[in-house]
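Changelog excerpt

This revision adds worked examples to the README so contributors can see how folded entries look when concatenated. The first example is reproduced verbatim below.
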Amino acid sequence: MRFAPTCITMADAGQALREGLASIAHGATLIDLSSLTRFDSSAVSAVLAWKRAGSALGRPVQIAGMPEGLLSLAQLYGLHEIMHS
């Protein structure tokens, strides 16, 4: 099972976060961000929350297809390594 959001902005981050957490709770171990076309800094928070949720369940969550702009935000916040672990 995988989760592949297309938009994670302040306006819809709560919904994307809940959907991702539900997917992880149902066994997802991959979040595919290659279809992510709109995002802001709230996407960094969502990714970190998904990774924590997977770790808490003993199923590390992998992030695939992270857009370059999101990687830049993560690097700005000093979270680049965490988001790729």
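The second example, added in the same revision:
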Amino acid sequence: MPDIQKKIKAIRLLYGLTQPQVAELAHLHLRTYQRIESGASAATENMLEALAAAFNCTVDDIRNFDLEANQFGSAPPRLPEIERLEKENTVLKAENYYLTSLLKTTLGDVPGFLEMRGGRISMKIEA
């Protein structure tokens, strides 16, 4: 089926996943997945089964994915992995806020102690 690669890519984008994430979830080499998605290589039945497991759907769901509507016949539930990661991210943000507050309470406002670098807080201690 010539549109299978388009359907695989559309499903990946629908879930908001990157190519490396899908490759990891499907236990495929990244380059292999990229070739499948680009149409340079055909997906074997085993690969389709691995992708279906990664997308939490069936091989038939992938084959019958509606590109026009950009949806499955009946939308499958969100990937459990995404929900777990979102919960974990929320917990980590809360812990980060708590630790930052604790540092500020303990050390006070030390100039240059907490700096933002590329969206991350780094500590700089000067003697």
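Reviewer comment on example two: Residues 4-77 form a domain with the 434 Repressor (Amino-terminal Domain) fold (CATH 1.10.260.40). The beta strands are 114-117, 120-123.
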